Amino acid sequence: MNYTKDKILEILNLPLNDLIFRAQTVHRKSFKNADVQLASLVSIKTGSCPEDCKYCPQSAHFNVDIKKEKLMEFSDLKKAANLAKKNGADRFCMGAAWKKLNDGPQLNSVLEMVKEVKSLGLEACVTLGSISLAQAKKLKKAGLDAYNHNIDTSPDFYKKIISTRTFEERLETIKNVSDAGISVCCGGIIGMGETWEDRAKMLEVLVNLKPKPESVPLNALVPVRGTPLENLPSVNPLEMVRMVATTRILLPKTRVRLSAGRKKFSNETQLLCLLAGANSIFYGDSLLTTENNEMDEDKKLISEFSKKDSLKTSNSRL
User: Fold this and answer.
1) Is residue 291 within a helix (H) or strand (E), and if so which, with residue range?
2) CATH number at 5-303
3) Is 273 a catalytic residue?
């Protein structure tokens, strides 16, 4: 089906019960089991990024209290990947605060990291900024499963958030990743001051990617002191529920990943997002430089969502 911005807005504006019912119906048809993929995310290079993304504490343009670090040592990467597997993660994602990936030692180091992650039986995903087709092919040969490169928001609103990289450049990297045979992980952020029309336009871009993105991370802005967006209000939880449900309807077979900002949502909100079609979360105590839910909390949450005997009646009256 060809989804236009106006059609997507119609879906976003459905009564909430109708929207969730429709999304769950689509979800059940596309995913026969109720599994929730656990993806662990680690920063392999932190801070000093030349980009000026107004939401990001890793930008060198803003005065943010963040510990800047060089590329992670290979031994530390091995420990992090092994720990992620031990804690039950299915996918291991590595993020670097770069505008683009450079050939030579930088690329070679990442290739070795990807090979290490794959040797553990984990899915490997990276987010490294812009990459060329030749670099993408090398990453594919090393075993990379997925590449994350978010579009962040609508093409129009994007210009108000980032000036150091064009929206078209982002789409070019996504094409390079696809052409190399790597799955695309591509999503966006809500709560940056955009309108619902901007959100619909962002989803319109995502649904028209060819091939469709394998996963779509949906992030709620985490305002960080020192960034231009530090004073924006928290995202209304039900707005995220609507985004999750609409994304599920638009992209039936895509993993919809509940990502940054989840820590501020109640367990009930997160469960509602899972009911609305989210079937992946970032799992671990931090997301690059942003705090995340504790792993024990997530285990309980997923258990509550998926187990068949969640209602204990032995000492209760019904």
Assistant:
1) strand 290-291
2) 3.20.20.70
3) no
